[in-house]
Amino acid sequence: MDELRRLLLHEVVSLYGPLQGQSIGAIIIPAFIGDFKKVLDGADTTDEVFEEYMTEDKKVHLILEGRKSLGAKGPRLEITGAVVNDKRLRLTEEHCYV
């Protein structure tokens, strides 16, 4: 999950610059991921779900994709895709579990 946050922060910093990007990223990234975790947790099926997020100034448009599956220890919440401003991020397995 830290890898996903790092990838998202990189995109935010590239849009806003280092100082403002770090500041904005520290607030919006945990909020977006936290909200998406609630969306996944409330999903009824193992179907892929997605949610769109946008900053107030509309500079960052994020689409998170994921699914809820049943693991040995109960439900597993997995982020399977992330798109920032029409740029799909390359996610590996270490990015994915919430």
Provide structural commentary.
The chain has helices at 2-16, 18-41, 93-96; strands at 49-54, 61-71, 74-84, 87-88. The protein has 98 residues and is of the alpha+beta class. It has one domain (2-96). The protein has a four-stranded antiparallel beta sheet, covered by helices on one side. Strand 1 and strand 2 form a beta hairpin. Helix 1 (2-16) packs across helix 2 (18-41).
Structural class: alpha+beta
Please, how many helices?
3
Biggest sheet statistics: 4 strands, antiparallel
The domain tally reads 1
Gross geometry: elongated
Rg, rounded, reads 13 Å
Alpha-carbon distance between the two ends? 6 Å
Concise structural overview:
The chain is of the alpha+beta class and 98 residues long. The protein has one domain (2-96). It has helices spanning 2-16, 18-41, 93-96, and strands at residues 49-54, 61-71, 74-84, 87-88.
List keywords for this structure.
3 helices; alpha+beta; 31% strand; 98 residues; 4 strands; single chain; 4-stranded antiparallel β-sheet
SSE map:
Blueprint: H1 2-16, H2 18-41, E1 49-54, E2 61-71, E3 74-84, E4 87-88, H3 93-96
Antiparallel strand pairs: 1-2, 2-3, 3-4
